[in-house]
Design goal:
By secondary structure, the chain is an alpha/beta fold. The chain folds into 2 domains: 172 residues, Rossmann fold (3-Layer(aba) Sandwich), CATH 3.40.50.1970; 188 residues, Dehydroquinate synthase-like - alpha domain (Dehydroquinate synthase-like, alpha domain), CATH 1.20.1090. Helices cover 46% and strands 17% of the residues. Helix 5 runs parallel beside helix 6, helix 6 runs antiparallel to helix 7 and helix 9 packs across helix 12. The longest helix is centred in the middle third of the chain and has 21 residues. The protein is globular and about 60 Å long. The N and C termini lie far apart (54 Å). The chain binds glycine. Glycine binds next to loops.
Length: 368
């Protein structure tokens, strides 16, 4: 393979590697060596399957002529993250005759990764899942760390399992077909790593943001690798989110509330997508930190400046009722004993979990 590949190792009880570089989906041996048995199911969605499912299937066939392969394609979008689609993937595994040594390939963004990962977690109590993320957001966040889930009417990601992938192959050439708005959404999660634990990374992002927005392959790979190193360090110490993994939710409690109140983004709607909502949420978390006396306003200004220059929103969209947002925040999975538990910061690179945040301060902020 004639390409530069970066590798990030995730340690802990179930170690695996994250490989990052262009052209990985075409590299059959790399894909086939992950299939311990004979069966592999490629799960993808209606946007991504037409672009890459044939590439993956052909590469697997060439490297493993003995393999029995099938593809399951779900309708693209968060609305597919249901128990019904989960059950359809299980049916596809049954139809393939998948045994315990079968592999699920999750080819797509976060929705595909969560669904396929959850099906892999449940089929025969757990089979291998190879994550093949095709969005920047999935490459730097959802494909790493083993969180899998589906949504139910009562809330997002309420049914799921921790099921670490057996490997992650992030083919950066897929970013070329990613709509610019989706690329920017991924940048929000990249900025998050700097915001919570790496002020030097923030400085680097401030310098490289134009290259990143212009699809500079090498800079994107570097940003992905640096983000994955942060995520790996955290999830190998705290795989089940008993402690520091919660820091990865900086901006997410506000962000999830915005997403839920607006209705989850579709390709046609005007609602903020996940990365955009997280960008707004990080600025709100930073502002709340200042209001509560934890951090200086200048750090918020710097974060806001970086997100702005990445083309991300930094203000609450109009028309959202503060009380309704707060009600959504009360449902966050991080909360304990009915108390609002938020990730705030002391400034750039210094996030912390604050266990019992005064709701009145949050309402004041949302009303401001
Ligand atoms: N996306 C946050 C986490 O994986 O913990």
């Amino acid at each position: 393979m004639n390409t530069t590949m970066r590798i990030v190792d995730v340690g802990g009880a179930t170690p695996y590697a994250i490989s990052i570089g262009p052209g990985l989906l075409q590299y059959g041996p790399l894909l086939a060596e992950r299939v311990r048995g004979r069966h592999a199911l490629i799960v993808s969605d209606s946007n991504i399957a037409p672009l890459y499912a044939n590439t993956v299937t052909a590469a697997l066939r060439a490297a493993g002529p003995h393999l029995q392969l099938a593809t399951y394609t779900l309708p693209a979008g968060e609305n597919s993250k249901t128990l019904t689609v989960f059950s359809d993937i299980i049916d596809a595994l049954a139809a393939l005759g998948a045994s315990r040594d079968a592999t699920v390939f999750a080819l797509g963004g976060g929705v595909v990764g969560d669904l396929a990962g959850f099906a892999a977690a449940c089929w025969m109590r757990g089979i291998d899942c190879v994550q093949l993320p095709t969005s920047l957001l999935a490459m730097v966040d959802s494909s790493v760390g083993g969180k899998t889930a589906v949504d139910i009417p009562q809330g997002k990601n309420l049914v799921g399992a921790f099921h670490p992938p057996s490997t992650v192959l992030a083919d950066t050439s897929t970013l070329r077909t990613l709509p610019p708005r989706e690329l920017r959404a991924g940048l929000a999660e990249i900025v998050k790593y700097g915001a919570i634990r790496d002020s030097e990374f923030i400085e680097w992002l401030e310098q490289q943001r134009h290259a990143l927005l212009n699809d500079d392959d090498d800079m994107l790979s570097e940003a992905i690798a640096r983000s994955c190193i942060h995520k790996a360090e955290i999830v190998e110490r705290d795989p089940f989110e008993h402690g520091e993994r919660a820091l990865l939710n900086f901006g997410h409690t506000f962000g999830h509330a915005i997403e839920a109140e607006q209705g989850y983004a579709s390709s046609t709607g005007t609602a903020l997508n996940h990365g955009e909502a997280v960008a707004v949420g990080m600025v709100l978390a930073a502002r709340l930190s200042t209001a509560l006396g934890f951090a200086r306003d200048s750090d918020t200004a710097r974060l806001r400046g970086l997100l702005d220059s990445c083309g991300l929103p930094t203000e609450l969209p109009p028309g959202l009722a503060p009380e309704a947002l707060l009600a959504r925040m009360r449902l966050d999975k991080k909360n304990l004993a009915g108390r609002l538990r938020l990730v705030l910061w002391h400034g750039i690179g210094q996030a912390m979990v604050v266990p019992d945040v005064d709701e009145a301060s949050v309402l004041d902020l949302l009303r401001a």
